[in-house]
TrEMBL record:
GO terms for molecular function: 6-phosphofructo-2-kinase activity; ATP binding. The chain holds residues 279 to 500 of 509 of the full protein. Keywords: ATP-binding, Nucleotide-binding. The lineage of its organism: Eukaryota, Fungi, Fungi incertae sedis, Mucoromycota, Glomeromycotina. The keyword ATP-binding applies. GO terms for biological process: fructose 2,6-bisphosphate metabolic process; fructose metabolic process. It comes from Funneliformis geosporum. This is 14754_t:CDS:1.
Amino acid sequence: DRQIWLSRHGESTDNAIGKIGGDSPLSEKGRKFGECLSRFIFKQKVLFRQKQMDEYRSASTSSLPTSVPQVKNFLVWTSMLKRTIETVENFDQREFDIMHIRFLNEIYAGLCEEMSHSEIEIKYPEEYSERRKNKLYYRYPGMGGESYLDVIHRINPLIVELERMTDNILIVTHQVVLRILLAYFLDVEKEKVPNMEVPLHTIYCLQPKAYDTELKRWKYDE
Ligand code: F6P
């Protein structure tokens, strides 16, 4: 048994004013979420270990002696953007293996980076309506601009790695990447991915089982 924990970063100062993309730091609210996340995940790590030991104790009274289960590594992956890195800054590095990975960055909105949706609608009305018509295939204009499909391809190698490993892990990432990861594990069709509800300050736990994946969700009470 292993657990994959997923969350978006805490609220950033750009989230608070409705701007997309960019690399802004956390707002005060976002920092509070980060503190709470570190306590919550540490508690989950302890509970996981207790459950593992309980299972071991009840198995070893009934059958042949088995060895004590190893403590699982607990990885924490974030993107390379400030808002995810700051979200995990309270995590204890002796308890968690923390890594920052560019593949987990948010969709890059090219010329529309750091604009609000209404600014995009005014400045680039055609782009705005193209995206509304087909959010999955639409690629933002300008150097490096991405579409949902581009992000799906970008994070594919990470999904392969996640499937392969057996460690517990927390991934702190962004709206688009979180939608794609959840959709992959929960078998949601591609067309539905761009409109999935994945609010800020919500923590998901996936537990892959033999035939499906169990999902639990916690909403941070602000
Ligand atoms: O607004 C936060 C954000 O993560 C942006 O950086 C990003 O462009 C957007 O959400 C993605 O959501 P959607 O595809 O629904 O615009």
